[in-house]
Structure formats: C-alpha cells, structure tokens
Task: structure prediction
Amino acid sequence: MPAAQQPEWPDRDRLKRAEAELATMPPLVFAGEARRLSSALSRAVEGRAFLLQAGDCAESFTDFTADTIRDRLKVILQMAIVLTYGAGVPVIKVGRIAGQFAKPRSSATEVVGGVELDAFRGHMVNDDAPLAQARVPDPSRLITAYNQSASTLNLLRAFTKGGFADLAQVHSWNQQFVAASSQGQRFEAIASEIDRALKFMAACGIDTDTEANLHQVEFWTSHEALILGYEEALTRLDSLTGDYYDCSAHLVWVGERTRQLDGAHIDFVSGIHNPIGCKVGPDASPQDVLELCDRLNPHRVPGRLALITRLGASKVETLLPPLIEAARSEEHPVLWVCDPMHANTITSAGGRKTRRFEDVLAEVSGYFSVHRRLRSWPGGLHIELTGDDVTECLGGVTDFGEDDLHLRYTTTCDPRLNARQAIDLAFQVADLLRREPAGQ
Ligand code: PEP
Ligand code: CO
Result:
C-alpha cells in the first residue's frame, strides 16, 4: 500500500539492518498497559473522564536532559490538577513524549538563506541544521530514537511512581518563572487547598499514606506513528491475548497527512490493538469519518479510537457538527479530542511560524459549544507545549509581540505553548468543562 511521508533513505541495506536490530530490542511498553489505557479512554467516551494529551511537537536529540523531561512533566501535571480540581473530572494524562521524533511535512523541501534543502523530518530521520548534509536521512537515528525513548520513559516512570508526582509535592511543580505570574498564583491557591484537603482527610482518620492514588499518577506515552519501519519493528505479538501491539508507545496516532483510507498508515494501525488516534482536518467529510471509524474500530469498542479534530478556530463550529452526527448515526463510540494548535498556525511578519493564544482558545471554545449543542461529550484536549519559558506562541497571558518571537524560539518544528500559556489554557478549559453535564 502507498505509504505517504516516508523518508528517502539513501542506503536501504543500512535501513534494513537498523530495523532488524530494533526488532530484537525489548518492547518499550507492555501490551497490558495499552489495554489499561483503552479502558481508561472508554470512560472518557462515556463522559466520565477527560483526556489531556500534551507535549512537544518534535522531541529533540540535542535538547535532551533530565530537566527538560521533568519540566514538561511538571506542566502536564499542573494542567491535569487544574482540570481535575476545577472541573471535578478524572484526567487521563498522555504525553506526546518518549517517541515523538518524526514529522510529516507539507513540502519536501525548504529554502533557508536562499538555498533549497530537503525538509527536516524529525530527529528520527535527519537533523534540523540548515545544511544539505544534515538533511540526509540516516537509519542509525532509528536506534537513537528508540534509546532516547527508553531512557525518557524510564525517567517518567520513576517520576510518576517514585514520589515526584505525590500530591503532597503539588507546590513544587510550580516552576520559578511561573510562580510569580498570575497563573502561577492561581495554581498556588489550588495547591494550598489540596494541602488542606489532605490534612483534613488525615485528621478524619483516613490513612492517606496507604492510598496509592495520592502518591502516584498514571502517565501514558504517545506519538505519531509515521515511520512505518520503526513502528513495525516494535510491533509484537502479545503472549496473553495473541493480539499484535505496537510496543513503541501506549497510544499512537495517524496524522492529517497520512490518513488516506487506502494508505499504509491506516492499514498498519488497523492491525494493532493499542488505543489509536487519527487527526481529522478541515478537508475531512462526514463520509471520511465514517469510513475511518469502520476501518479502525469495526467492533465499536469504546476507548479504541480517538478522533483528534484540528479544524481551525473559524471553522470548528460549522465543520465539527456533521462529523459528530455521522459517527453517531452509525453508533460509533468515538472519543472526540480537540487539537486547537495545528489548524491555527500562522507566519509572523518576521517569517516565523507562530500561533495566537486567542485562536487556540477560540477553537477550544467552539469545540465545547458544538459538543454541548449536540449533547456529545467533549472528551479531551491535544496540545503542543514545553516546560521552558519560550516565546513561540503569541498573546494570552504573555507580554511579548511578533518582534519578540526570536528571543527564546527553540522549537525544531511547530510553535509550542510555554508553561504560563499552558496553565492559563487549563484554567479556561476547566471553566468550560465545569459547565458540562457529565456522564451522558
Ligand atoms: C502534529 O501533531 O505535530 C502534526 C503534524 O499534526 P497534523 O497531522 O494534525 O498536522
Ligand atoms: Co506539531
């Protein structure tokens, strides 16, 4: 089947060797974990939970430290607390992390300083440096991506199970540059209320020490399943069920540029048993959505399929209702997730890719109002963020303008919300979610 967006590897033998090596490596996740995520997501389909899927647009081989992993985790945990506390709904935390190394591109080449170069396709494939040599696809990067995913996942497991994510630590997730801002202070107020609630429970005689939910969180990994050789090499037969699982992450999704019904990506994910996502852009018709549902979730298992809509702030209110109606008419249990980033990308006067916080928020609000109108559950949010104090997205609580984007613009691909913008968004989403009649 045609596989869109695959690199032109110059040396097929080296590619085959790298894939063969990957096929002998241990799985990164266990099939049973992926099944537990499916069952958590089924609760989000039923209106009893909310998915927060967040992380980098493209993880980087060069910007890879324990601190950046910790800081991304902190922001996601903070957002999840704001949503859980603000809306009283359990939040399923899924990172775009530990594997998000490959990027689809709208154009195969780009012009940098007057020179045409092959596009950067993520560190799993080539390097982002603006040099012809750096852009040559290198199969050894598949192995590096696997190793970096393994060590990232190891640290995430340590952080989330080993005390860092303990509710008693909630104050320490507020990073210095956030704490001084009004969103940081709002977060501190919630953290103090959580402290009081924990003390109250202890004073009532509840043994808070032995309640694991107070000391650990479940954190799941996800990425776009783009480079099929990599994903196939990590796909394993589960000995317990006899089913195939892509053990590169708990959840993988198919991107907007690779979701052709007769293409290799849709065929690949139709054969694995992980929970899966599929991006749905403004060109998708209700018929496309129905065919995706039939193909990817023929048995209508709730929690199997998330459709991640990225329609654009100005279009979501008109384009989303027919898609929801189509899936509903055939009784497909879709988890509807809003990606308010990818259809709201603009180019600044200085030529940088950016997004306006106001557009991101407008798409989220439109998504909530459509779901409310149709009595459908707004199941989750998919965003690109970083724990760093970057200047990549405009507006919202930040005070920089187009001329300041260059100050701390470190993304190798799309512009990400910084920690203050991400927490601000979480407060606004919590307000929207609180108004939803849950459990329909
Ligand atoms: C992405 O999620 O980074 C991405 C490329 O999204 P989409 O496929 O929706 O354009
Ligand atoms: Co992106």
